[in-house]
Design brief:
elongated, 47% helix, alpha+beta, two-stranded antiparallel sheet
Length: 168
């Protein structure tokens, strides 16, 4: 069996409108940002020459960890910034990464979001929900194609049916 359906890549379904934060944002402001935008994580970017370059990734988990420590142990000096709390080398993919490689990354690393980066520049983000949708859609297309390959229409029956219906 030959699958003719093109496997989607990250660029086919990534979100390009991504909520990002700057590395100099303080803990309180990044918590406000995540809560107000109703996102569980955000890429940390530096803007150079009008382009967004990924320098890290900050999540609710990171904020919970640092905020609870700050509350339990007292106010740290200096005040925490995103650059002090973020994961500095997040797992990333390129825009041409195929669906099954994305699936593997999400499963192997238990991710919720994955930044899409080309030459250091943030191009978009892929979420676990989008991966599930794409995988489901691709499976449906492949199943339909597989059924056509296994059970091709019998053209003789179609021709005979045409003659039976017209009465000739």
């Amino acid at each position: 069996m030959t699958i003719k359906t093109k496997m989607p890549a990250a660029s086919d379904f990534m979100r390009t409108q991504v909520q990002t934060v700057a590395p100099d944002l303080d803990l309180s402001d990044v918590v406000d940002f995540l809560l107000s935008h109703q996102v569980s994580s955000a890429p940390v970017v530096e803007i150079r020459d009008g382009k967004k370059y990924l320098v890290g990734f900050i999540s609710e988990r990171d904020c919970i960890d640092h905020l609870s420590n700050e509350m339990f142990y007292g106010q740290p000096k200096p005040q925490l910034t995103v650059s002090m709390m973020m994961r500095k080398h997040p797992i990333c993919v390129s825009s041409d990464t195929p669906l099954f490689a994305l699936v593997s990354s999400f499963i192997s690393h238990d991710l919720r979001h994955l930044p899409v980066v080309d030459h250091g520049e943030l191009k978009g983000i892929v979420s676990r929900c989008e991966i599930l949708k794409q995988l489901h859609d691709y499976n449906r297309k492949v199943d339909k194609e597989d059924n056509l390959n296994r059970f091709p229409p019998d053209t003789h029956q179609l021709i005979n049916l045409r003659f039976l219906m017209t009465g000739h």
